[in-house]
Amino acid sequence: MAQIAQAGSSLIERIGNTPLVRLERIGSGLRGVALAAKAEWTNPGGSVKDRAAYAMVRDAQARGLLTAGKILLDATSGNTGIALAMLGAALGFPIHLAMPANVSPERKRIVRAYGATVDWTDPDLGSDGAILRARALVGEDPERFCYVDQYSNDANWQAHYHGTGPEIWRQTGGRVTHFVAGLGTSGTFMGVTRRLKELNPAIRAISMQPDSAFHGLEGLKYMAASITPAIYNPHVADRQVMVETEAAYAMARRLAREEGLLVGVSAAAAVEASLRIAREEAAAGRAALVVTVLPDGAEKYLSERFWEEA
């Protein structure tokens, strides 16, 4: 596997160290408060999930779980599957994914383009249905698969503890006051928050999730009605913000038309939550630098009808 990893090093070296962009127009008029976001679509697989995917692959290799002849398996709502499929193609191991059948057509085409095998699961069950299918597959033939299980894998959140969190600290010169991130596996929020609070316990960490179990925010979980990821600890957050699907759609359009940033719906939801926090801080007369993560770009969502709305 060391030789395989070396062959893919040029791609691997592009994971992480993403730009921090300031949201000038969205955050205008908020006296003393600035909004900034990590542009995670600049990762080679197009999303923040490249970080966790590579960390999980590296961990599985180091522990002797991903060996010659094994198929790497995971459940995904899209971006982690794309990242794993990319890594499998680059590093030379087969990928089998369980994914809800209602993910965007673009995501389906991308994982197929990388050559991954996919089991399409009941869309009504969301990511939980994919998790159940992955568990069934490994239960039927445990010797065939290396099940990385992003929802329970500590390498997921550790990728952000060692990578994304320190990057935010360096890029803001330690001036970050608030961190906002959506909850899917919760890896990004858990890892970044733990690292930032070690660096400055006064930093406020706000988790964001959809406002109902039936939502259009791919990649995010409504925790109260979902299989709770083992890596998720609700006590890490100082506060939680719930975002409506329509508010996220509206923010995606605003970001495109006011900032020139084409982002995915979970990214737009994160900015919506960040803007709410920023407005509160400005209204209270407190200086703040609110930082969030834009998990991916809009290329996987351009078939969605909300882009055509006024």
Task: Describe the model.
This protein is α/β, with parallel strands linked by helices and about 300 residues long. It has two domains: about 1-40 and about 165-310, 3-Layer(aba) Sandwich (Rossmann fold), CATH 3.40.50; about 50-145, 3-Layer(aba) Sandwich (Rossmann fold). The protein is built from ten helices and ten strands. Helix 3 (about 50-60) packs across helix 4, helix 7 crosses helix 8 and helix 9 (about 245-260) packs across helix 10 (about 265-285). The chain is globular, with a radius of gyration of 19 Å. Residues about 1-5 have low confidence and may be disordered.
**Reading side by side through the largest sheet, how are the strands ordered?**
1-2-10-7-8-9
From the N-terminal CA to the C-terminal CA, the straight-line distance is 51 Å
Shape type:
globular
Please write the CATH class name of the largest domain. Alpha Beta
Main β sheet profile: 6 strands, mixed
Estimated structural class? alpha/beta
Number of helices: 10
Query: What is the residue-mean pLDDT, rounded to a whole number?
Result: 94
Kindly provide the radius of gyration, computed on alpha-carbon positions and rounded to a whole number of angstroms.
Answer: 19 Å
Which CATH-level-2 architecture of the largest domain?
3-Layer(aba) Sandwich
Binned, the helix content reads 40-55%
Quick gist of this model?
With 310 residues, this protein is an alpha/beta fold. The protein has helices at residues 2-7, 9-12, 49-62, 79-91, 105-113, 126-140, 154-171, 187-199, 245-259, 265-283; strands at residues 20-22, 33-39, 71-75, 95-100, 117-121, 145-147, 178-182, 204-210, 239-243, 288-294. The protein has a six-stranded mixed beta sheet with strand order 1-2-10-7-8-9. It has a four-stranded parallel beta sheet with strand order 5-4-3-6, sandwiched between helices.
